Amino acid sequence: MNGIKGQDVVVLLKLVSLQDSANGRRSQDLVSNLQGGAAYSVRNLESLLGISKTEIGASIKRLLSIGMAIKDRETGWPKPHRRDLYSFIVHGLKFVFPAEPGALTRGIPTAFAAPMLTNMLISGGTYIYVWPSATGRDIGQSILPLFRSVPEAAAKDDRLYEYLALVDAVRLGNQREVSLARDKLADRLMSK
User: Fold this and answer.
1) How far apart are CA 20 and CA 125, in angstroms?
2) Over the stretch 110-150, which tens digit does the pLDDT of each residue have?
C-alpha cells in the first residue's frame, strides 16, 4: 500500500465533518445535501468532494490500512481516528505536504484569511493566501490545496472549509500562527 496522499487528508476531514453533523454540532444540515444515499457512501463523498469514486475508494483503503480511520462496527462505514489525525496534522503534515506561496492570483481565501478565521490573527500587511479558483473574489498569494477540488468542496461545507483552512495555517504559518491553528484544531477535533 502506498503512503498517504493529499486527497486522503481531504477525505478524512470530510468524514470528520460528516461525523460532526451527525452529532448535531452544526447548524447546517448536510443530510439535505446527500447525492447518493448514505452520508458515508463513496457516491455521496464523490459528489461532495469532487474526487472520483475510484480515488475515494483507494483513499479509504489507505486510511484504514494506516489506522487513520476504522470501520464502524454497526454500519461498516469508515470512521476517522481523530487523535491520530490531529497528531499527523500538527506534527507531520507540513513535512509531507509543504506549502509554498506562489504568485498573486484570484482565489478562495485560506489559512487565517478564510472568513471564519479572519478575526483570530492580525496580519502585518502581507498578502493573504488563496487557493487558485476562477470563482474566487479575493486576490492573494496562491497556495496549492491538498487536492485540486478543495475550493469546490469547501464551498459546499463550511465546517470542512474551516478544517482545510486550519490545515493550511499549519502548513504555512510561523510559530504563532501554527500555535493558534493547533489550539483551534484541538478544540474542534478532540472535543468529541
Assistant:
1) 35
2) 998 999 888 776 666 678 999 999 999 999 999 999 999 99
Cell of 66: 494506516
Distance (Å, rounded) from C-alpha 132 to C-alpha 136? 7
13 closest CA partner among 58, 38, 49: 49
Q: C-alpha distances in angstroms, 95 versus 13, 52, 129, 169, 171? A: 18, 26, 19, 14, 8
pLDDT at 85: 95
* The model's pTM: 0.88
Q: What is the pLDDT of residue 31?
A: 43
Strand segments (E) across the chain? 69-71, 78-80, 104-110, 129-132, 138-142
Distance of CA 39 to the CA centre of its chain: 17
When computed from its CA atoms, the radius of gyration of the chain, rounded to whole angstroms, is: 16
Which domains does the chain possess?
6-96 (1.10.10), 104-189 (no CATH)
What grid cell was written down for 68? 487513520
Q: How far apart are CA 50 and CA 91, in angstroms?
A: 27
How long, in residues, is the chain? 192
Write out residues in the chain with pLDDT < 50, as ranges.
1, 25-36
